[in-house]
Specification:
Two copies of one chain form a homodimer.
Chain A: E1 2-7, E2 12-20, E3 25-34, H1 41-59, E4 63-67, H2 76-95, E5 99-103, H3 105-113, H4 120-130, H5 140-160
Parallel strand pairs in A: 1-4, 4-5
Antiparallel strand pairs in A: 1-2, 2-3
Helix pairs in contact in A: 1-2, 3-5
Amino acid sequence: MRILGIDPGLQVCGYACLEADRDTERLIEAGVFKTSSDLSIEAKLNQIAEDVDLLLEKLRPGMVAVEQLYSHYTHPRTAILMGHARGVILQRCAQAGIEVKSFSATRIKKSITGNGRASKEQIQKTIQTILSLPQLPEPSDVADAIAAALCCANEVSNILVGGASPTLQSQK
Amino acid sequence: MRILGIDPGLQVCGYACLEADRDTERLIEAGVFKTSSDLSIEAKLNQIAEDVDLLLEKLRPGMVAVEQLYSHYTHPRTAILMGHARGVILQRCAQAGIEVKSFSATRIKKSITGNGRASKEQIQKTIQTILSLPQLPEPSDVADAIAAALCCANEVSNILVGGASPTLQSQK
């Protein structure tokens, strides 16, 4: 199963595509797409839509994984703007007929490190180990996208092997 | 100038299309489009995108007016979800090459009634008077969409006649 993790943002979106089998995950491609700072918000959103369309077309994932936004209450303005970008990303996935899975930040951390309160650095190091990367995943947008995709791979694998998956959080 | 006001929501979006000349505004069409409650968030967003595309195609507005979301800090979860819908609406407008104007709730109220803290009922009554409607505009999603479009018509008319428009708030 090919899983595309996306970390939504109005200025920068991170993405990471994994090939996930029952026990192993392999990183196919990761990167960021950025919007020009001098554009209006609607033009930025349109650029994001075009970039997502290109990614889906090129990478052809079977599933897209994103982080939930509800945990960002402390910066409501940022969370609302990220919501704009996230909405566009989800819509483009639906339009392309690709299933989307949403996971809370805590769920992602717990799925990768076993600890829902793991630090950014712990997440990065665990990702580096799991995927045998030559260096720590960076920038943080890419690390977050990989983390969402890895969490999704773990959850899907749990379902496939009939393991414990009562906590799968699909944002329906 | 034909102006389409949209009141974004994940369950219900209100819309209202005005034909605005220098001094008068006429209501062409208004209504709501709803999403099925049993759909996933991405499917709802896709339904909204399709409905917006149809509206833009049918009504061919020269400008779209929406309310800013930043004032909804007291209900961050709702504001974030509305942000998803708003993001999709703005992106579809940009994709169609239609200019978008965003106005704060206070600005809209002030533009219509002269009072930035006007009540919902005062807004409805003023709208009814300005547009010579047989009854109060309802539901609230439609009233809010008309209000955004009327505010936009006032601002644009101010610019056209070279009047005071230092407070025009375009969300760039």
